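Postdoc handover notes: sequence design on the structure in folder B. Input tokens:
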């Protein structure tokens, strides 16, 4: 993985916030607002129990740019059966049965039930605060590109090594010094 987590003055901590360059898509996490945003009531983004997400009739995505989403993170929330969290878009499959839809392949399953589950989700867009990016960097690795007031393009990185301590906590303070505590 080559994750970069973005923090911008105009960002939002509910955005996707991250991009993995190894998947070759377009980096929508570098911008302030999410490239795609949907609420459960819109019924435009669904997840399945086999690690896929389908985007139906959404501004910002059409047949010409589905592949551009690869590598972006989608933040899924707001559904009874959804497993809330950040998911990486790692591939694409196409369903031929009507209606024709594209299904993004996520890095893991995002629902606890079978069938399509409508979710609130955002693809792309930077975070507003460093703690959100630091938390996800601690979970998924990578670097932080922080362009908030007073600190243009400050980057920090961490490499996670598992050593059999499942209760390790990684935190970063304001000077990007990382503290690792095991319990």
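Designed sequence:
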């Amino acid at each position: 993985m080559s994750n970069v987590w973005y923090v911008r003055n105009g960002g939002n901590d509910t955005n996707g916030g991250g991009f993995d360059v190894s998947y070759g898509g377009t980096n929508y996490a570098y911008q302030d607002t999410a490239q795609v945003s949907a609420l459960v009531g819109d019924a435009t983004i669904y997840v399945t129990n086999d690690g896929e997400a389908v985007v139906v009739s959404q501004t910002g995505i059409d047949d010409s740019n589905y592949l551009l989403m690869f590598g972006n993170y989608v933040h899924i929330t707001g559904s009874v059966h959804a497993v809330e969290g950040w998911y990486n878009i790692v591939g694409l499959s196409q369903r031929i049965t009507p209606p024709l839809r594209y299904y993004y392949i996520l890095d893991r399953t995002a629902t606890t039930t079978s069938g399509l589950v409508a979710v609130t989700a955002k693809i792309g867009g930077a975070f507003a605060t460093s703690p959100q990016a630091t938390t996800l960097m601690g979970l998924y690795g990578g670097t932080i590109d922080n362009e908030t007031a007073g600190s243009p393009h400050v980057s920090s990185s961490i490499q996670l090594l598992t050593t059999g301590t499942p209760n390790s906590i990684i935190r970063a303070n304001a000077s990007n010094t990382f503290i690792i505590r095991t319990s």
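Context for whoever picks this up: Residues 130-140 form the longest helix (11 residues). Don't rerun without checking with the PI first.
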